[in-house]
Amino acid sequence: MSLRITLATAARVLAQLRHDPRTIVMMLAVPSLLISLLWWVYDGGRLFDVVGPALLAIFPFLVMFLVTSIATLRERTSGTLERLLAMPTGKLDFLLGYAVAFGSVALVQAGATAAVAVGLLDMQTAGPAWILVVVAVFDALLGVALGLFVSAFASTEFQVVQFMPALILPQFLLCGLLVPRDELPDVLGAVSDVLPLSYAVDAMRDVQAATDPAVAGDVLVVVGFSVALLALGAATLRRRTP
Is the pTM of this model over 0.90? Predict the structure, then answer.
C-alpha cells in the first residue's frame, strides 16, 4: 500500500466526477430531496422527527452504494482497472483511493442533508447538528465500502442493481425503521444484529440524546464493517470482467 498512489487514485476519481454533473447531483442533492419529500409526506409533524434521523442514515448509504458500485464496475469493464493494476497500483490502493474520493463527497453530502433536515425542515434532535453530519458521513462510507465489495461480483450494471433487493432491502426492513429491533421475532432480531445498516440507523437515532455513549459504540461497529468490507473487496476484486 502506498499513500501517494492512494491519494493519486482519489484525485483521479474526483476529477472524473467533476465532469459528470448528473452523478454529482445524484450524490449531493438526492438525499436532501428525499428528506424534504419525507417532511412533506408527514407535513412536518412529530412523526418526521421520529423517522427522519433513521432515513438520514439510510439515504446517504443507499446513494453512495449505487454510485460507488457502478463507478467501480465501469473501471473494470473499460479496462482501466487492469491497466492500473499493471502499474505499481495495488488493489488496496485502488479501493482506498475510491474510499477517500467518495468519502470527501460524503462529507459534503452529509453536511448538506443535515443542514436541510435540521436547518430548513426543523427536524428536532437533542444532539448538535455536527454530530448528525459525522454519523451521516460514516453511514455514507459504509455504503461506499459495500459498493466497492459488491462491484467485484457484478459483470454488468444491471447485476449491480439486482444486489439492491438481495442486500439492501433486507437491511432496510430489519434496521428498526419499520419495527423496533427489540420487538422483532427472535430469528429476525438475530439477523438484524449482524447487519451493518442496523448500527448505522442506531447511531443516528442515538444522536437524539446527545450524551448517549451508545453513539460512539454504534459508529465503531459501522467503521468495523466498512474496514472489513474494504479488505474483502481488495481480496475479491478482479482485474477484468469476463
Answer: no
